[in-house]
Amino acid sequence: MNKSKDSEVWFVTGSQHLYGKETLKQVDIDSETIANALNASAKIPVKIVFKPVVTTPTEIYDICLAATTDKNCIGLITWMHTFSPAKMWIGGLSVLNKPFLHLHTQFNRDIPWNEIDMDFMNLNQSAHGDREFGFICTRLRLNRKVVVGHWQDENVVDKIAVWTRAAMGYNESKGLKICRFGDNMREVAVTEGDKVEAQIKLGWQVSYHGVGELVESVNAVNETEVDELMKEYKARYTIASTELENIRYQAKIEIGLKRFLDKYNYKAFTTNFEDLTGLKQLPGLASQRLMEQGYGFGAEGDWKQSALVRIMKVMSQGLKGGCSFMEDYTYHLDPKQPAILSAHMLEICPSIAESKPSIEVHPLGIGGKDAPARFVFNVPEGKGINATLVDMGGRMRMIVNPVTVVKPEALPKLPVARALWVPEPNLEIGAHAWILAGGAHHTSFSMALNTEYMEDFAEMMGIEFVIIDNDTNIRAFKKELKWNDASFMLGKPLQ
Question: Based on the domain organization, do 41 and 137 belong to the same domain?
Fold first, then answer.
């Protein structure tokens, strides 16, 4: 894939002046070699930019401050080729507000048994240089990812690639604008949350707009614009309905909604079927299409999942698979293979479709409006993750559950996009743990990302991370949640 034009990760190597000019020159050469090799990797979606070796507290402070203020820099990779006394890093790390990855490697893979001497040893000191750096990071209680191994190992490159995508999510998060059309669904608890705290801690700007503003934008769309979009629908999808006027109205919503979002630079949005006065249909196909184009979406005012969908789409761009808003809907409790049928009334992204989606028009018993057009499709078999964000009162908790999508039986009377999956370790423990953790019924589902991406992102953002997987034991899981609560309470300032 092509490298992101605007996203850079700086490769910063630490050393000191103890070893002389020739050694420092070699450190520079080796560091640039590693940086260039990582940059050449097709797996890494951003530019890896070599920076000259830093050897003094002032140089370290300056490079960290420069990274903090540079709009294109989304993070650092740090490496100690030699021993770099870590007190030199305190000032720089204290002003750094970008995520960083600590690469614990060395330039040579093998020890040159017959030639090794003290000059070689003084140059290749990562084994203890990185431990000194690790201490100060831990002492400063800084979140970072540590990757251990030779820089040419594919496993090492893979872990760095995952982290760079999480850094892309972090960068997106810090300037993310989310539009709420109407408020949350009345009396629903889990979709609520502290929007001020979300902006302080996560960078999200969550703003309200009256539905009337959206209606004005939709009504301003002319028929020629609708005609052009209908041509795209016919070329890309199967139109399995004769009610073309209903489809045309969704096209009109899509154009008007996109124009409104782009006008204010919103990258995610929410709707609420209880508060869409003036629209003839609920935004079904329109919301699905905008998700396909990369916008985040949350139903019933769920701005947290809307943000998460957008961020996961940014993290997964260029990867095989897709990402969508989702909802755990109903269970299949057959003892042979208990599973969850996940869907929503309308709004599932076609990026996760098994085959060409069909556009269909069917009545909807909720919302009290005309029959909306929507995509109908199955999700392909394979591995995925189901993730959610919940507000625990003072902090966000991210819950992630790996799942295996399986093939459903025919669903002739269910005209929605849907996925049937088995959660890890199984439905009984998976659902039990999800409920204990306070997990929402709304989620962000991806077949492009795995748990590692989400854990890296959560750590960057300072979000509590809870994983439900094949290692989950309910008794231990209960203790983990209590420890997390205790850790949070201890970290709060005294009242």
Answer: yes
